[in-house]
Amino acid sequence: SINKKVVAELQKLIQHRDNNTPQLNPSEVSTVIQNLHHNGLIVKPEILNVLWDYIYLLDFYKHAVNGLHDCRKYFRSNDFSKHRLGCNDVILFFKIHKLLQQTVVTIRQQISTQETRHLENFIKNNLENYSTDPEKKKQLLYGKQVELAVEIKKISQIKKKLEKFIQSLLHERTF
């Protein structure tokens, strides 16, 4: 899709970017728009800026979590006081990381609950439609499949009676 291509182009930009500002400068916007135009996409700068905000935050959090892991390794193997990162930095990014994990779990649960409610309402509405429409009831109760099922049941009963009859004939024949 278009958004995936725009995101891919912005991710290329963030990997090779010298400055670490949260906003794109006009030349970066122009470069990304030209690259996308060469790929046959026309994108407005507003869309780039919206997607950039998400990509920048994601990259920031990834670097922060990687720094947290590096810091943890360093504190395990070396003296705590010699590192430029303080304990507060470690705690802050650890809490941000945990908060993001909890947010993801909560959002998944909300989506699951919402989908369950949507499905329940859909089923309830369909059942109500069937209960109020006599034609649909008749189709369900007297359709071709129902008639075939009734015939199969009758044939099954006849088959059982025939088997009993054959068994009784065989039994009488042996005596």
From TrEMBL:
The lineage of its organism: Eukaryota, Metazoa, Cnidaria, Myxozoa, Myxosporea. It comes from the Eukaryota. Residues 3-172 form the Dynamin-like GTPase OPA1 C-terminal domain. This is Dynamin-like 120 kDa protein, mitochondrial (Trinotate prediction). InterPro entries: OPA1_C (IPR045817). It comes from Henneguya salminicola (Myxosporean). It holds the Pfam family OPA1_C.
